[in-house]
Structures are given as C-alpha cells and as structure tokens.
Specification:
mainly beta; three-stranded antiparallel beta sheet; two-stranded antiparallel sheet; 7 strands; glycoprotein; Glycoprotein hormones alpha chain; hormone activity
C-alpha cells in the first residue's frame, strides 16, 4: 500500500553522505554521487537508501572594467562588469527508492536525481 504523495513529501527527510568524488581542485562541473537516506517521517517508520547524483564543481567567471557608456548610464556607479556561470543540473531523472517499513511491508517513493550537469547562468532562485 503506497503512502499518499502529500504525506511523503511533507515528511520526507533526506540525509546525504559523501561517497567520493574527483580530486579536490579539479576544474569543471560534473555529477557527484551521494548516498541518500529517505525516511517517511522523523521517526524513520519507513526507510530506504539510494545513490543519487548532484552537480558539483565550478565554472568560469570573469570581471572587467565597464564600458564608458555603461559607467555613464549608471551615474559612474557601475565601474566593473562581471560575467559568471554556475554549475547547475541540466537534466533530471526520477528514480524509485524502495522503503522498508515495519512488519516487512515495502513502500516505493520517487525522488529526483541529476542526470547531467552544465555551466549555466547563475540564478539566485536555484540556491
């Protein structure tokens, strides 16, 4: 018997544990595996784990003096122009996590995991 989606999403608790990644300082934006533990509620009534993926790394950013027209239009307040990109998820995938419940009962829950990453425009709403 599946738990109602609204209940699962309101009670979902994810615990992420590092499972290793490329060497620190390696440039780029790439998938990183994490061990995700999913619980149906704070007491862990139903529990399961799955290797999910997140996007980690860094992308190219630069700053340079603003053009005269930009400086003039901003009342000479905008002296530096910066161009930044952030490591973001470009494709998601739904995966099913099997939860083991009391009395050997099993439930299934779908979670999202990153399938592909890319450097893209930074958006505050993502973080």
């Amino acid at each position: 018997m599946a738990l109602p989606k609204t209940l699962l999403f309101s009670l979902l608790l994810l615990l992420a544990t590092d499972t290793g990644a490329p060497e620190a300082g390696v440039p780029g934006c790439y998938l990183h595996p994490i061990n995700v533990t999913v619980r149906s509620d704070r007491q862990g009534t139903c529990r399961g784990s799955h290797i999910a993926h997140a996007c980690v790394g860094y992308c190219e950013s630069s700053a340079f003096p603003s053009r005269h027209s930009v400086r003039a239009a901003s009342g000479y307040q905008h002296n530096i122009t910066s161009v930044s990109q952030c490591c973001t998820i470009s494709r998601l995938q739904k995966v099913k996590v099997e939860l083991l419940c009391p009395r050997s009962r099993r439930e299934q829950l779908e979670i999202f995991t990153a399938r592909a990453c890319q450097c893209d425009m930074c958006r505050l709403s993502r973080y």
